[in-house]
Amino acid sequence: xxxFEEYLATVPEEQVPRFQEIFAWVEETFPxxxxxxxxxxxxYTDHGTFIIGFSSAKKxxxxxxxxxxxxxxxxxxxxxGYQPTSHLFRIPWNKPVNWALLQEIIAFNIQDxxxxxxxxx
Length: 121
Prior knowledge:
The chain is α+β, with helices and mostly antiparallel strands. It is about 40% helix and about 25% strand. A hairpin with a 3-residue loop joins strand 3 (about 50-55) and strand 4. The chain starts with a helix and ends in a 9-residue tail after the last helix. This is DUF1801 domain-containing protein.
């Protein structure tokens, strides 16, 4: 699997619009980020470093911003009604996306990893 479109062909049809909405929003809000599929997961990178990834689950969309982002935003994610773990948070398919919070998380990762030269922190 090498493209987001190939990934979308593997998820349930009813999940595709949410993924497309998120991908379009990320690319409009952060036009310098690059698409990449790795570990069977669509993700975005900046200067070759991981910024954020997305994956499908039966009851939710998983969002992975790395551990540093999860630690920094754990309380805000909980307050937003998401289910954070140490590596990802879950957005239920039937709940709206908190766009402002997602923007803060992505912006944090871009800034925090500006001087990184490795894929992961």
